Automatic annotation (TrEMBL):
<keyword id="KW-0479">Metal-binding</keyword>
<keyword id="KW-0862">Zinc</keyword>
<keyword id="KW-0482">Metalloprotease</keyword>
<dbReference type="GO" id="GO:0006508">
    <property type="term" value="P:proteolysis"/>
</dbReference>
<protein>
    <submittedName>
        <fullName>Peptidase family M23</fullName>
    </submittedName>
</protein>
<keyword id="KW-0378">Hydrolase</keyword>
<dbReference type="InterPro" id="IPR050570">
    <property type="entry name" value="Cell_wall_metabolism_enzyme"/>
</dbReference>
<dbReference type="Pfam" id="PF01551">
    <property type="entry name" value="Peptidase_M23"/>
</dbReference>
<feature type="domain" description="M23ase beta-sheet core">
    <location>
        <begin position="314"/>
        <end position="411"/>
    </location>
</feature>
<dbReference type="GO" id="GO:0046872">
    <property type="term" value="F:metal ion binding"/>
</dbReference>
<keyword id="KW-0645">Protease</keyword>
<dbReference type="InterPro" id="IPR016047">
    <property type="entry name" value="M23ase_b-sheet_dom"/>
</dbReference>
<dbReference type="GO" id="GO:0004222">
    <property type="term" value="F:metalloendopeptidase activity"/>
</dbReference>
<dbReference type="InterPro" id="IPR011055">
    <property type="entry name" value="Dup_hybrid_motif"/>
</dbReference>
Length: 457
């Protein structure tokens, strides 16, 4: 019954459709070509079922249908914005540098560099706060770094021993002292005297300035003009402070040996803070100098020398001990303080009278103890001042003099040292220092020989 109704409905629908096509003229009047009719009957072939590969893998268990999955939003990744600001570009700087000539002032050199009066005054005040400008001497170097408009960016004063005083211009002028951290290197050398000690050292490429030290240290014992016949051998050991390949300051003698007239003269400058420089002849103590500054280095001896400040040759009436500013200075013998004050180029001075004819002078002091007064009696080893650089001095040191009847005498050959030599002769420490110096000299000479031979090969 139901199927009958469906068939009737289809007939009604098809009839209505044909009527509509005929009315609107859409129904084609020509028969359909056979090829098109055949194409309309094409249907795709049925797909084959997929093949499932056999594997030994373990399949994870399927989630239960009643398990609800929680959907969460993905977190946002952090985004870093690139720095698109342009780098600051330093303007080009110009550097001007030269050594200070004899008699020049800092202001004159800065004017030569093209700096204005106000800048020069400001720089002088800044550098002068760290360094006494009266100590400027030939060989010091001024370096000026300027901006394109000519204003200073940095000014540097290089003085002795590698020390530099720098004034930097920023929001405000800042000054600092730059000191090198040197490495001490030991050298050894051997020279044969054919004419003079100076020529022998120069030929052997050993600092020729040691000729003055040797001649003056042995001056009271050896007459070099009479005793040198030619062919004598010298062996020296010295130390140099170095900052990389640059030498800082002057080299320092540590040991010297001279074969002369069948005897061997040796000098030891100990670095064990014993405070005693000793002269030996054939292994026995000849003289010992008891220093007024414990552990200081004997930097200049008695006699004629080229003055380190004025540059001319003049008599050096005492001996100098290089030491740090503020190092205690001690009386070398008992006596009475005869003078406390200033004496021209000596700076601050303390003088002690030892009897009626002998006087010791301690110069360039930075300070004197408050309780020390003129007329006061002091004992040997008692502190009477501190090392300084007052007066005409190139750096902190003690200038020590011995005067007999008002005339300066060599402290190294003064009679008062005879007793010290006798005491030192019984001290095995003196002989031990000599043995150590000899051993180090032999070791360094052998090393220098191996190095020289290797370089030649």
């Amino acid at each position: 019954m139901r199927m009958g109704k469906v068939e009737v409905s289809l007939v009604v629908v098809v009839g209505a459709s044909m009527t509509a096509l005929a009315v609107f003229g859409v129904l084609p009047k020509d028969p359909v070509p056979p090829a098109i009719a055949k194409a309309t009957l094409w249907t795709p072939a049925p797909l084959a079922p997929p093949r499932i590969a056999e594997t030994n893998s373990v399949r994870p268990p399927f989630a239960q249908a009643d398990v609800a999955f929680e959907v969460r939003p993905l977190p946002l990744l952090p985004v870093s914005l690139a720095d698109t600001s342009l780098p600051s570009i330093e303007p080009p700087l110009t550097t001007w540098s030269r050594e200070i000539a004899s008699g020049e002032t800092l202001d004159a050199v800065l004017a030569d560099a093209g700096l204005g009066a106000s800048d020069r005054a400001e720089i002088a005040l800044a550098i002068g706060a760290e360094y006494d400008l009266r100590r400027l001497r030939p060989g010091h170097v001024i370096t000026v770094v300027s901006r394109p408009d000519g204003t200073p960016r940095r000014v540097e004063l290089a003085v002795e021993d590698g020390v530099r005083i720098e004034a930097a211009f920023g929001e405000q002028l800042a000054t600092r002292v730059l000191e090198p951290d040197p490495e001490w290197v030991t050298f050894a050398g051997e020279a044969v005297i054919e004419s003079t000690i100076f020529a022998a050292l120069d030929t052997a490429d050993i600092p020729a300035r040691f000729a003055v030290d040797l001649a003056q240290m042995l001056g009271g014992t050896v007459d070099f003009r009479r005793d040198l016949a030619g062919g004598e051998t010298m062996r020296l050991l010295w130390r140099e402070a170095r900052d990389g390949t640059q030498r800082i300051g002057q080299p320092e003698l540590a040991f010297a040996a001279l074969d002369l007239g069948g005897s061997v003269y040796e000098i030891v400058w100990p670095d064990d803070r014993s405070g005693r420089a000793a002269i030996y002849v054939d292994g026995e103590v000849l003289r010992v100098f008891a220093q007024p500054v414990e552990g200081a280095r004997l930097s200049s001896v008695f006699g004629r020398r080229t003055h380190p400040v004025y540059g001319n040759v003049r008599m050096h009436t005492g001996v100098d001990f290089a030491a740090a500013r503020g190092t205690p200075v001690q009386a070398t013998a008992p006596g009475r303080v005869s003078f406390i004050g200033r004496r021209g180029g000596y700076g601050r001075v303390v003088e002690i009278a030892h009897g009626s004819d002998t006087l010791t002078r301690y110069a360039h002091l930075s300070a004197v103890p408050d309780g020390l007064t003129q007329g006061q009696r002091v004992m040997a080893g008692e502190m009477i001042g501190r090392v300084g650089a007052t007066g005409t001095a190139t750096g902190p040191n003690l200038h020590y003099e011995v005067r007999v009847d008002g005339r300066p005498t060599d402290p190294l050959s003064n009679d008062r040292l005879a007793e010290a030599a006798e005491r030192e002769a019984d001290d095995t420490a003196a002989l031990r220092r000599l043995a150590e110096a000899r051993s180090l000299l032999a070791e360094r000479l052998a090393s220098e020989l191996v190095q020289t031979t290797t370089e030649r090969l």
